[in-house]
Amino acid sequence: MKSLAQLDHAHVWHPFTQMRDWLRQEPIIITSGQGAVLRDVKGREYLDANASIWTNLHGHRHPKINAAITRQLQKIAHSSALGFANEPASRLAARLVAAATPVNRTGHVNEPETWPKPGPNAPKLEKVFFGDDGSTALEVALKLAYEFTRRTRGKKSKPRFLSLDGAYHGDTIGAVSLGHVDLFHKAYGGMLFATDKVMAPYCYRCPFNRAKPERQDARKYRKCAWECVGLVEKKFAVQKKKGNPYAAFVFEPLMQGAAGMIPQPSGWLRQTTDIARSHGALLIADEVMTGFGRTGVTCHVDDRAIAAVTKAPDQAKLFACSRTGIRPDFLCVAKGLTGGYLPMAATLTTQRVFDAFLGEYEEFKTFFHGHSFTGNQLGAAASLASLDLLQSKASVRRRAELQKELHDELQTLWPLPHVGDIRQVGLVAGIELVRDWQTRQPFDLRERAGIRVCEAMAQRGVLTRPVGNVIVLIPPYCTTRQQVRKMIGALREAVEVCFGNAEPPKSRGR
Predict the structure, then answer these.
(1) How does residue 111 score in pLDDT terms, banded at 50, 70 and 90?
(2) Are 359 and 136 in contact (CB under 8 A)?
C-alpha cells in the first residue's frame, strides 16, 4: 500500500463512510485533474461523473478560474467581513442578485413566454449573506425566517417549518432539523427541534400512482389526481387551525438530491408554493445542488431549442426557481457557487426581511450570526469568474448540447431489467436500481447494490457515488459527447457485471 494510503487509513475520518469497510481496501487517491478527468497516485485516469460531489461546473483547472484566483492572491487572500467590506464580495453580491431576478436591456424583468411567470406580488431578492457551505446557507435562512416571523407575528409566536419527506438540507443542527432522512438524522433526534414533513412527489414509488411500470421516466406515465398537492394543502390548513401557521416552506426546487434524485413533475412546485403563499408562509429554496445551471438551460432538448437559447444566453436561467416562475424569500446556494473550487455559500433574501433587522445599536436587532471566512476574497473571485463562464454563449450552448447528449445516452439503459427508473432534470440524472423493473421491488440497502455498481464503474474508469440504490450522474459542463458515452457505458457494464453474467474487466493498473 502506498504511504499516502497508509496515512489516510491512520488518520483521516471520511464523511458518510463506514470506516470499517474503508480500512479493508486501498483507497483511490486523487492527485490531479483536468477538465472532466481525474488522475490518481498510480497514474490511472477516471471521469468525474459526479462533479466532485456535485460541485464542479466547468471542469478541473479551468484557466479562467485559475487566473482569477491567482490575480486575487496577488492582492489579498482574506480579510474579515466583521466591520470591513471588500471588492470581490461586493461585486459578487450584485451579480447574484441580478442572476436571481434577470433583466433584459430595457430594464424589464426577463420572463420570456417559454418560462412560467412569477406572480405580480412575488418578492425580489436584493440582499446577500455569505457563508461557507450549503449547511450554513440553510442555517442562515432558517434563523432569519425564525426571527423575522417572531418580529412580524409577535415575540410569543413559535415559528414552525414544513419540509418534504426525504429532505436533506445539510448537517448543522438547524439544517438537520429540517431534514427527514432517518438514516442520516435519527441518531441526532435528541438534539433537534421539531419540524413537520409532507409527502414528496416521488412518482416512481408514489402510493397514489395507479400506472403500471413502463420503460420511461415515471413522471411521464403517472396516473393520479395530484393527491400529493392535496396533502400539502391539508398540512397547511391543519397547522392554521392550530393557531400557529407555518413560518416557512423549505424545498429543493425541481429535484431532491440526497433523497434519491427525486424529480418533481411539471406543475407540482408552482402549485405547492402557491398554497404556502396563500397561508402566509415564507419560501426557502435550497438550490445548493440545483443552482448555477444544473437543472438545464432549456425546457426541451432538440436542436431548435439549443439554437434559440444560444442566441439569447440571458434567457438561460441559472436557478431552478427561475425555471418554474418561483421567487422565494430565501435562495440558498453553495457547491457550484465558486465553480467547485473553494468552500463558499450565499443566502439571498428580500429587503423586507432585511428591514426587520434594522434598528439602533441599543435595540440589539442585529442578526447575530457569522463565519470567519464570510465573503472570502478568493472564493468571491472564483465565483465571479464562474458566473462569467456560465453566462457566455459558449457555455450556454455546451450545456444545452450536454443536456441532450445525456438524455439520449440514458435511453440505452432501459433494456437492463435491473433499471427501474431513469430520472433526468437538466444536467442531473438518477438511475434507480431494482430487483425487478416489472414489480419495482427494491434492493435491501444492506445488499449495497448502488455501492457495488459504483465500485464496478470505478474499475472501468468512471467515478461517482450512489444515493442508496440510485446511481447519480452529474457531469461537469465541459464533459464531451465521447465522455458521456463512456460514463453511461461504464454504468451499463457495471450493472450487467453486478447482476448478470458479464465478465469483469481486466485490472486497470499500469
Answers:
(1) very low
(2) no
Dihedral sign (CA 133, 135, 140, 145): positive
Please choose, from the candidates 374, 371, 284, 292, the residue with its C-alpha nearest in 3D space to the C-alpha of residue 96.
Answer: 292
Q: Map out the domains of the chain as residue ranges.
A: 1-62+125-369+395-510
45-48/462-463 β-pairing: parallel
Q: What is the Cβ-side half-sphere exposure of residue 232, based on CA atoms within 13 angstroms?
A: 29
- What gap in Å lies between CA 241 and CA 424, rounded to an integer? 39
38-46: list long-range contacts, CB under 8 Å, 24+ apart: 38/463, 41/2, 41/4, 42/2, 42/509, 42/510, 43/510, 44/461, 44/508, 44/509, 44/510, 45/461, 46/458, 46/461, 46/462, 46/463
**Helix axes 303-311 and 393-410, enclosed angle (nearest 10):** 160
Q: How far apart are CA 132 and CA 172, in angstroms?
A: 12
pTM score of the predicted model: 0.94
Distance CA(369)–CA(357), nearest Å, equals 12
User: CA-CA distance, 61 to 305, in Å (whole number)?
Assistant: 30
DSSP 453-467: HHHHHHHTTEE--EE
- Distance between CA 285 and CA 118 in Å, rounded? 15
Top-confidence residue, 3 or 509: 3
**How far is residue 57's CA from residue 341's CA, in Å, rounded to a whole number?**
9
Compare 481 and 310 and report the one with higher pLDDT. Answer: 481
CA distance 229 to 269: 9
In terms of phi and psi (left: phi > 0; alpha: psi -120 to 50; beta: otherwise), the region of 286 is beta
Residue 260 sits at the vertex; the CA angle it makes with 407 and 412, to the nearest 5 degrees, is: 25
| CATH number for domain 1-62+125-369+395-510, candidates 3.40.640.10, 1.10.287.4070, 3.30.420.130, 3.30.70.250 | 3.40.640.10
Q: Which residues of 125-136 are buried (b: 16+ CB within 10 A; e: fewer)?
A: bbbbbbbbbbbb
Where would I find the H helices in 264-412?
268-278, 303-311, 320-323, 351-355, 377-390, 393-410
Report which residue type is found at 80: S
